[in-house]
Amino acid sequence: MTTTPCTSAMPARRRLAGWAAAAALALAVPAGAAAPAAADANFPSPEGNTSISSIMTYESMIAELEKIESTSRYGVDVFTLAEAGTEYSVSEQGRDLYVATVGEGDEDVWLQGRIHGNEPYGGESLVALLKELGTSGDAANRQLREKYTFHIIPMYNPDGSEENIRHTILQDGSEARIDLNRDWMEGKFEAVESEAFYEYWTMVQPDFGVDIHHQGLKKEHGTDDDVTLSLGVSLAPGGPTLPSLADGAYDVLTRQMHVHVYDELSKYGSINIDRYQVGGSYEIDIHGGVVSAMMLGLDHRGLNPEGFSSPMVFFETSGNTSEGSLGQKARGKSIKQNVRALESLLTGMASGEVQQEDPERWEDIPHAPTTGYFTDDGVVPLD
Q1: CA–CA distance, 82 with 201 (Å, rounded to integer)
Q2: CA triplet 219, 221, 226: central angle to 5 degrees?
Q3: Phi-psi label, residue 32: left if phi above 0, alpha if psi -120 to 50, beta otherwise
């Protein structure tokens, strides 16, 4: 473990640029495979008892990160935010907040998981990706490390993760439960985790990033097929906010990112993808979410006076740790699905394929007809 502040945690702002080709990193795709009519019935399965005994704990995460750091061939650095030098550096209950970096590239990528404590497999997927980047000597991973510096946060919410709940619990005597993914907004920042990771984000200034979540069991609109993965942008493409940011660049790039992931993952018979919506037909357009605030360029406590912003997307794997939601066979498939989604996006950005996608094909990703926008202040009906 690092014992001094990590200098790689504080790079200068870097410009988003095309990556070198790195297709070999992706898992093999069957040639000519077609999109599935329906997902594997066991992924996730509402039958059987949900077991959480194998889910990564805070202590097992630390142990795995330390193991990867000590055995990696290519400079994995594991450190706490205290070592990175942030003013706030622990969770509400006093747990250290961990980050792992790998790569020496001029461009930074922010990858976070488990901001909701009962959504476990984003964290495990990120640990799996970190291990690959830190140990594989193939040409694809070498090119990624040379181009990129990854900032990986497997467990944003360690307190909620330990209690298997969505929130963190304030330790100010109120015992208020705070959704950390609604806390990056002026007048909020109620939890110290929010203060800590916000400051780290301003230090890193990533070129783009991904947030990994879970959702409940879901059916595809129009087919009633089981959905295993939903693709989301927390400021709705074409909605009331995103087109006005970065001269519309984020409105284009975030759609291109998800079009590419949709095409690549639709080749797998066990994966069925749609667009993330809430309430059946509402597009999400919240400003208090972490990745939303990153795109908005939030300046909190004067730490981002120039209004730096980052384009961000999120993934939602179906099934969480609610009883009957994950099923006994879902863990490995959930993790593999997330890793494939991450790899397809990263290699697509690396090759420039993402930037060549038609953003209008966002409408081709299955979804219910939009009837409104789900905002911080309630639903805004579609005009």
Answers
A1: 14
A2: 25
A3: left
Specify the residue for token string 């790569």: 103
What distance in Å separates the CA atoms of residue 261 and residue 339, rounded to the nearest whole number? Answer: 11
* Fold of the domain spanning 7-381: Aminopeptidase (3.40.630)
Distance of CA 285 to the CA centre of its chain: 17
**Residue partners of 365: CB distance under 8 A and separation at least 6:** 231, 258, 259, 262, 273, 274, 275
321-364: pLDDT as tens digits: 766 665 545 788 889 999 999 999 999 998 899 999 999 999 99
Q: Could you give phi then psi for residue 282, rounded to 5 degrees?
A: -100, 135
Average pLDDT over residues 219-239: 96
168 beta partners: 178
Secondary structure of residue 340 in the 3-state scheme: helix
Report domain extents, the chain. Answer: 7-381
Neighbouring-strand partners of residue 132: none
- What is the rounded CA–CA span in Å between residue 62 and residue 57? 9
Residue 304 per-residue DSSP state: -
At 330, which amino acid appears? A
DSSP letters along 10-32, please? SPPP----PPPP-GGGSPP--TT
Residue found by looking up tokens 């001029």 in the block: 106
pTM value is 0.88
| Chain centroid, CA 57 distance in Å | 19
With a CB cutoff of 8 Å and minimum separation 6, the contacts of 300 are: 184, 186, 189, 198
Among 234, 237, 215, 217, residue whose Cα is nearest residue 316: 215
Report how far residue 158's alpha carbon sits from residue 194's, in angstroms, rounded to the nearest whole number: 12
Which of 177, 173, 19 minimizes the C-alpha distance to 103? 19
